[in-house]
Amino acid sequence: MRQRVWWRRRQGQALVIVALAMPLLIGMAGVGLTVGTVYYSQQKLQNAVDAGALAGAKALMMGDPNAPGDQAALVSQDDPGASHVKLTVSSSRPNTVEVSAMVNAPGTFAALFGHSHFAVHVNAAATYGPGAPFTYAVFQGDPNAGDPPLTLIGNAAVISSNGSPTANVHSNNDLQLQGNISVDGACEGDPSVIKEGTTSTEDSRNTGDSTSTEDSASKKESPDCAGPIVAPANQIAMPQWSVAQATPPNAIVVGSSSNPVGMTIGKDQTVNGNYVIYGNLVINGHKNGNATGNTAVTGHYLVRDGNIIVNGNAIITGSLVTFGGGIFMAGNVSQSGGGALAVAAFTSNGQVAESANAPAAHNPPDAGSIVVDGNVNVSSILYAPDGYVDLNGNEDVSGAVIGYRVNLKGNVNITYTPSENAAVPVQQASLIQ
Q1: What is the mean pLDDT of residues 348-372?
Q2: What distance lies between CA 6 and its chain's CA centroid?
Q3: In this structure, what DSSP letter does residue 93 have?
Q4: Maximum distance among all alpha carbons in the chain?
Q5: What confidence score (pLDDT) does residue 8 get?
Q6: Residue 394: its pLDDT value, please?
Q7: Would you state the pLDDT for residue 286?
């Protein structure tokens, strides 16, 4: 009998506890409902704003004169509750669309306390361009962990065309800097960035009638990166071009796949036009610096299943692109883009060449690779996504050097020029915020 009374007392205590806790439980459920509603509204608007930013960037990329303003309606279509929608072109970041919008999320439970709604503001930004590799002055897109690193050797300077430290260097493998190397930007490598100085010894000197011997002096030359060291760096995929993307408009076709006759441009010749050439393209300039003239080539040249060979003194204004061959330039060669695509070499099947990990400065070059040997000035992008870029001698590149493998030797100056990216046929739009 006593036990039964005690149990009834325990039952009464539980009811009291539940009654006291009920407001707290209801409040917690209400707060959870309100937070969930606001979060859902924020995510819905964020998705709509992201889509609007991407659409605006793609429209700008395609040259829509009304972009990005026309894409503002897309935000309201995806989220009818969106208001204060604003799409603008960024004044501080190139090729970038910035979007902002707001929505009034229902207060639900919070309405009992005077909060009928909550104003939710979101932002997004999307940019367009040729892809991440083209944002670097030097880029090696070799993703295989067992392959050699990107090594900069000798007297190499990587600088920015506008004087700011934006001439970055990236390797999907290790990055090694050896000798008198100067990089006006970040140095990125995966998994590491290694800087190794070299020691040079100055010889004894004789002065005047009497001989005075100075002790040999050792001078330490250390590589330098003006920007941060990033290690391990992110792996960045290498974009590809198609033959159709690289084919110039209104091109004159020389030969065919079954009859690769090729094309040879002789000394002192001037050739203008856009060409698709089956076979080898050979541009012969003068062999010495005493020549009275130069071979002048203007236009865009796409070579199928053949090499591009430039020998001697030549002035090239336009693009040199080959699918299924390589590019070799030697002598006093000057190349400028003039709105061209680039100086680019691809394998015929879009696969990495077997020789990609064994750069060799020979003529003819390996398929999918670029070899530059001599006094060469290039105002363009050197691009070999399936092979290697091998620079030997005295080269000045105003643009970028991008390859599956990159080999820099000799006196090489690379001036990163982002404006050259506008000619790259592969353009991509992506969210950055």
Answers
A1: 86
A2: 78
A3: S
A4: 130
A5: 54
A6: 84
A7: 66
Average pLDDT over residues 56-69: 86
Cα–Cα distance list, 368 to 159, 257, 262, 301 (Å) = 26, 18, 18, 16
| C-alpha distances out from residue 353 to 31, 142, 162, 304, Å | 61, 12, 35, 16
- CA angle, residues 103, 108, 109, in degrees to nearest 5: 140
Q: Count the Cβ atoms, other than its own, within 10 Å of residue 269.
A: 16
Which residues lie closer than 8 Å to 23 by C-beta, 6 or more apart? none
pLDDT digits (tens, 9 = 90+) for 117-165: 778 899 999 988 888 898 899 999 987 777 788 988 878 899 988 766 6
Task: Give the span between the Cα atoms of 295 and 280, in whole angstroms.
Answer: 17
The token pair at 91 is 């004044």
Of 209-223, 355-369, 378-392, 393-407, least confident by mean pLDDT is 209-223
Report how far residue 318's alpha carbon sits from residue 248's, in angstroms, rounded to the nearest whole number: 11
Give CA–CA dist 336/159, Å, rounded.
18
CA 99 to chain centre: 24
- With tokens 């000045």, the residue in question is 396
Residues in the chain: 433
* β-bridge mates for residue 277, sequence order: 254, 303
pLDDT at 357 > cutoff 70 = yes
Place of tokens 């361009």: 129
What is the 8-class DSSP label of residue 154?
S
Q: What was the pLDDT predicted at 205?
A: 36
Tell me the pLDDT band of 72, cut-offs 50, 70 and 90.
Answer: confident
Distance of CA 7 to the CA centre of its chain: 76
pLDDT over 90 (residue 347): yes
Angle at 213 between CA 208 and CA 215, to 5 degrees: 145
- Do 303 and 275 form a contact (C-beta atoms < 8 A)? no
3-state secondary structure of 255: coil
Report how far residue 254's alpha carbon sits from residue 299's, in angstroms, rounded to the nearest whole number: 15
Q: Which residues does 339 contact at the CB level (< 8 Å), separation at least 6?
A: 423
State the Cα–Cα distance between residues 265 and 279, nearest whole angstrom. 13
Show the tokens assigned to 64: 């829509």
Determine the Cα–Cα distance for residues 310 and 297; give it in Å rounded to an integer: 11
